[in-house]
Amino acid sequence: MKRHSFVKKYDFWGWFFIAPASLMIFILSFYPMIQAFILSLQTGLGNNLRFTGIWNYYRLFQDEIFLSSVANVFIYLIFQVPIMLFMALILASILNNEKLKFKGLFRTLVFLPCATALVSSAMIFKTFFSVDGIVNFILLHIGIITSPVSWLTHPFWAKVVIIMVITWRWTGYNTIFYLAGLQNIDTSIYEAARIDGASAFQQFFKITLPLLRPVILLTTIMSTNGTLQLFDEVKNITSGGPGNATITISQYIYNLSFVYNPQFGYAAAVSYTILIMVALLSFIQMKVGDKA
Amino acid sequence: MKRLSLAAAVLLVSSALLLAGCSKKNTAVAADPNGPITLTVWCWDPTFNVYAMNEAAKIYKASHPNVTVNVVETAWADLQQKLLTALSANQTSSLPDIVLMQDNAIQKNVTTYPKGFLPVNGKVDVSQFAQYKVDVATINGQSYGVPFDNGASGTFLRRDIVEQAGLQVSDFNDITWERFIELGKIVKQKTGVAMISAVGNENDIIALMMQSAGTWFFDAEGKVNIANNTVLKEAVKQYKAMVDAGIILLVTDWNAYIASLNNGSVASTINGCWIVGSISAEASQSGKWAVANTPKLNVPGGINYSSVGGSSWVVLANTKYPDVVMDLLNTTFAGSVPLYETILPSSGAISTWLPASKSATYGQPNAFFGGQKIYEDIVAYAGNVPQIKYGLFNYEARDAVSRALADIVGGTPVDTALATAQKNVEFLVAGQ
Question: What ipTM was predicted for this assembly?
Answer without folding.
Answer: 0.77
